[in-house]
Amino acid sequence: MLLNKPSFIELNARERVKALLDENSFRELLDPFARVMSPWLMKQNIVPQADDGVVVAKGMLQQQPVVVISIEGLFQGGSLGEVGGAKIAGALELAAEDNRKGIPTTAILLLETGGVRLQEANLGLAAIAEIHAAIVDLRQYHPVIGVVAGSVGCFGGMSIAAGLCSYLIMTQEGRLGLNGPQVIEQEAGVQEYDSKDRPFIWSITGGQQRSASAMIDSFVEDNRDQIKQQIQAFMTQGVPQLHRSSNYQFYLPRLENIDTAEQLKPEQVQALYQGASS
Fold first, then answer.
1. For the chain, what percentages of helix, strand and coil (3-state, to nearest 5) are there?
2. 34, 115, 157, 168: which could form a disulfide with 128 (CB 3.0–4.6 Å)?
3. Would I find ATP-binding among this entry's keywords (predicted)?
4. Taking the model in full, what pTM does it have?
């Protein structure tokens, strides 16, 4: 049965955008032929990519204007540097301007990223900070919808961007966390976090766990039609009354009472956040 379902994860970044947009409405901004790529990677003997691993396109979804931003997880682990980060921030800022001009534009972020590109550290950090500011500005007009579908997941500074989204969609294969498993293992030791223990990793940061912990708004199958339908539903739903990132009065007291001397089990995390969406 699974073979008959059109996979979203198996598509590359550009194909994912086209799968979501209405037919013949795809218009890419700064496509690979513009040759806007990182000026820093070749200096470190790394082959750059012509779109810097970020696809930005304007189009229509259900005949409504949208901008879709898709990060290619296969290029440098989906990491963001100066160019890719600027493309995302610029697109979000322009979408906010469109809204202020009376063009109701929704942003959709397809997140397959490890966060900041280490080879462009400070430049990447600055770009991601601009992305955060742009999301907060845009989401007051129309929803910013994030999708974390594939096994690359969403980590680092871009996990904060995911947390700022109006709505967040995940599959079982997706992962979401502030620090990646290998980073935690490197800093705290394998006894604390074994990055090779895949069932353990997904039990902590996987889509099913994030759904049970009320960290996301929709848990879907790896099915491009189902993901598209859920995005459409959130567009219709509009801006939420309270964004998750603004609900600090709920989260802060719970975080302050956690005993970090012992690692919480997945079911304990789920119990900790019960009532988050109420």
1. 45, 15, 40
2. 157
3. no
4. 0.95
